[in-house]
Specification:
It is a single chain. The protein is α/β, with parallel strands linked by helices. The protein has a single domain, classed as Spore Coat Polysaccharide Biosynthesis Protein SpsA, Chain A, CATH 3.90.550. It contains 7 helices and 12 strands. Strands 1, 4, 5, 6, 7, 10, 11 and 12 form an 8-stranded mixed beta sheet that branches. Helix 5 crosses helix 6. It is globular and about 50 Å long. The termini are far apart.
Length: 239
């Protein structure tokens, strides 16, 4: 039996840097919210068997309304931090042997083909896979306001999502991380957690369209790409 592919779409964060009055995942873009666009991309990839959307408890009813045309989607309450949300999602997966894709709803324009590329690399045996793109800017390491050094950017990559993993190994890494009194680092993404756990991480080609919508200028760029005028009013959903 082939492994199922399960996508966890992280939509529980507040996304305050975007400046909206509602959580970032529910901000509209061309008449469709970021989370809806991310869910659509997962479906269109034709490799995802199940989609779990991670939401804050106070946004669940709104999320169900936004995604009412996706009856196959399951909703799981996220935690206070991104890592907590992912751990909650992993525990909600019923499968023991599967491929799991971890995706940020804010990367709403991610091409379905890139999703397939990540999933297929895990299905072929890689325990951890991340999509990456070259770094265009010169990067400085700093301490306070002083430059420490300038890494060679030819070996640097910007990491995108979805990131793909063997479910059993990602669960094991999370268990060790959350049971540790002091893991010694903060997991900023799931690949860093797997690196810490001792798992090799494979890189595949990312896509510029998979940029993360974090700030107002990112939203403006996304609106330009999708040929839609910038929304100026954000409404808080009624409870």
């Amino acid at each position: 039996m082939s492994q199922r592919v399960i996508a966890l779409v992280a939509a529980a964060g507040r996304g305050t840097r975007l400046g909206a009055e509602i959580p970032k995942a529910f901000v509209p873009l061309r008449g469709r919210t970021l989370v809806e666009r991310s869910v659509t991309a997962m479906e269109t990839s034709e490799v995802v068997d199940e989609i779990i959307v991670l939401v804050s408890p106070d946004m669940e009813n709104h999320a169900r309304s936004v995604l009412k045309h996706y009856p196959q989607v399951r909703f799981v309450h996220g935690g206070g931090e991104r890592a907590d949300s992912i751990w909650q999602g992993l525990q909600a997966i019923r499968d023991e042997n599967a491929v799991v894709l971890i995706h940020d709803a804010a990367r709403a324009l991610t091409p379905p083909g890139m999703i397939s590329r990540v999933a297929n690399a895990v299905l072929k045996g890689a325990p951890a896979v991340i999509p990456v793109v070259p770094v265009a800017d010169t990067i400085k390491r700093v301490a306070g306001q002083a430059v420490v050094d300038t890494p060679d950017r030819s070996s640097l990559r910007a990491v995108q999502t979805p990131q793909g993993f063997d479910l059993a190994q990602l669960r094991a890494a999370n268990e060790k991380y959350f049971l540790a009194d002091d893991p010694g680092f903060v997991a900023t993404d799931d690949a860093s957690l797997m690196e810490w756990f001792g798992v090799d991480v494979l890189c595949v080609q990312g896509d510029p369209m998979a940029f993360k919508i974090t700030s107002p200028i990112d939203l403006t760029l996304a609106q330009t790409i999708t040929n839609e005028a910038e929304p100026t009013i954000f409404e808080v959903p009624s409870s």
